[in-house]
Design brief:
Blueprint: E1 7-17, H1 27-37, E2 45-50, H2 56-59, E3 65-74
């Protein structure tokens, strides 16, 4: 749908909340994989990860929360 509108991602920002697993050791690989999938340089993909300090469904390890923002640019 984005390509049909002559748009493409310019950069991406992700925030992931998970009590487990620990994501810090994987962030660099996740960043590289997302950058490759979106045809972006790795520095255009930002990933932040954290815990919910044992609060709510995330803290009880019943789920994970992820929020993503994408800035789009015109391709024409």
């Amino acid at each position: 749908l984005v390509k049909e509108q002559e748009l493409a991602p310019k950069n991406v920002s992700l925030t992931i909340l998970a009590q487990r697993p620990r994501l810090a050791p994987h962030i660099e690989a996740m960043q590289a994989n997302l950058a490759a999938a979106l045809s972006l340089p790795p520095d255009a993909v930002g990933i932040a990860a954290g815990t919910n300090e044992h609060l709510g469904y995330v803290g009880e390890e019943k789920g994970i929360t992820c929020c993503a923002s994408v800035l789009l640019r015109r391709t024409v």
